[in-house]
Automatic annotation (TrEMBL):
The keyword Signal applies. PROSITE patterns: CYTC. It comes from Candidatus Nitrotoga fabula. This is Multihaem cytochrome c. Residues 1-27 form the signal peptide. The keyword rRNA-binding does not apply.
Amino acid sequence: MNIRKRMAIGSALIALGWLSLPGFSSASDQVAAKKILQQNCVQCHRLEGKPDSRFNLKAPDLIWAGSKYQRPWLIRWLTGKEAPLYSKGYRWDLNQTPAKHPVVSESEANALADYFAAHNKDARVTVGAFDVTKLSRYEADFGAMAYKAHACLGCHTIEEDGKLIGGPQSTALHESGKRYDKDWLYRFALNPQDFVPHSGEFLADATDPQVRAVIGYLMTQGVKDFQYYEPWTSAEFDKASVSRGKVLYKEYCSQCHGLTGKGDGPAASGLEPKPAIHANIPFDQLPMEYLYNVINHGGPAVGKSSNMPYWNLTLGQQGVADVIAYLKATFKGAPESTAATSAASPAAAAAASVLPAKAAAIAAPIAAVAAAISSSGGGGQSDACIQPRKTVRAPDSFMAMKNPLPASAEVLQAGKELFQKTAKPAACAMCHGDKGDGKGMMGAALVPPPRNFTCNAMMKDIPDGQLFWIIKKGSPGTGMMSFSGLSDDKVWQLIHYIRSLAR
Ligand code: HEC
Ligand code: HEC
Ligand code: HEC
Ligand code: HEC
């Protein structure tokens, strides 16, 4: 086919609105795209020039349109399949309400996208600067917090728990994961004024990790089933070494947690809450996400004491992987909650883990005895129903609160789901036990022990508002973390469920 003929067919297809194959742009498409832009777009949008205040513009600049958008979004926008971005109008200062945006055909939209890719790339954007495939759930959650802490919510909407929240002054960000190119977004965040100077946009005093977390979080907005990165599936964890972990444990953990994991290191006497008694935790059964976050990112990452340091910088990923391998190989849980294979003594366990099965069978009972002895002085649980309760009393305004939800089957079921499985940073059952008796797998590691919700004699005297306050804030100086990320409704669902466990 000669070139002239192909061009003729190409423009015929465009005219009919057929050609929708991306990346098949011919010279004629480019000419057609340019014509569309000149005739239908430049009266509102700028395609070149220097960044300018939005108060001098009619519409967002398209100067960097070749770098800014994900192509499928751009096509949807141009063909009229996306909701307005500025719900109060782009020029709200002129009382402009969002008008219907001009619409082009699918083929024209593709030609325009190709045109932008060829003519409106932004050289300031480094391709590959932001790796969204390495975004963990923890980082995204951290980004959501940073987003709020840096006032972003004040001017841009996002989606949380199925609701839009935030001030709709500027562009909506609740679908930003489907809209922006990740590298453009990252570059924008480094210095917004390079794109829209002096127009009410905001320069945040955020560190690079904070900026990356915020951008990562925005890249999850509007993306169903976002695939989070799981650091514990990395190569470092594949080649983790128990013996290297053992050395690290002695050097970095024993000062608080004790050489044999009994929570009795030299620093422990001055700490509230006490360092967890590792000897009583069945590490194999802990969710990796929780274990990784508390060690890599520190206590506050899971709502716990900031006296539990973050180890990512000190130990690196390999060190964190090694020490986790050591914990799993060494500590198997409190003796009363596990079989006789329990190993509370790191020496015995390390021995057991390297010895062949026969020798391990001999080592195990010795370890079990050691565990029994070691746990007798530890915190852990007891069978007494009423627990000594030094928990801080909630402020009066909270004490007066009553559960606003009905104790319906749906509410109880929702509370159960949170309690047993889904509450973040950790399911309540992990500490309070699946029956609510305070004997969860981590319960025995905590001093004071988790509350026993089955004890009606004690629970009947604790008002709803007190429970609400502790769940939201945590119980300072104890292993009870704060669940500040749970909505009020979810906390009330939990309280109905907790009450249903009392006998
Ligand atoms: C009458 C003015 C006007 C015309 C003509 C117009 N636009 Fe727009 N465009 C706007 C406004 C205003 C917005 C902001 C949309 C909103 O408020 O939701 C916008 C938004 C956009 C966006 C998203 C910008 C961003 O990053 O926020 C793109 C892309 C776009 N237009 C492309 C085009 C193209 C291509 C044409 C020509 C086919 C065109 N527009 C014609 C006014 C116009
Ligand atoms: C005081 C209000 C205000 C605050 C606070 C604010 N922004 Fe903005 N933001 C703007 C304005 C104004 C613009 C320019 C775009 C427009 O509306 O014309 C903008 C632009 C943006 C854009 C690019 C939008 C686009 O499509 O061109 C992103 C992304 C963004 N902001 C993210 C953030 C983040 C993240 C934070 C918090 C660190 C933040 N903003 C805080 C007002 C604000
Ligand atoms: C400076 C003292 C200190 C050091 C050093 C320390 N921890 Fe901790 N750790 C704590 C405290 C305190 C807690 C209890 C936090 C709470 O319950 O709020 C804790 C809790 C934990 C928990 C359990 C969290 C839970 O849910 O109860 C794990 C696992 C843990 N630490 C692992 C480690 C590892 C591994 C190291 C060494 C790399 C280490 N810690 C070093 C103080 C320390
Ligand atoms: C890491 C362990 C841990 C997890 C996970 C945990 N708790 Fe606790 N919880 C505790 C400990 C320890 C106490 C005892 C604190 C005290 O005595 O003040 C406690 C106490 C409580 C109390 C008693 C407050 C009072 O005034 O007596 C409530 C209510 C409670 N937890 C609810 C929850 C709920 C709901 C969840 C899940 C959303 C949860 N806990 C998850 C460890 C945990």
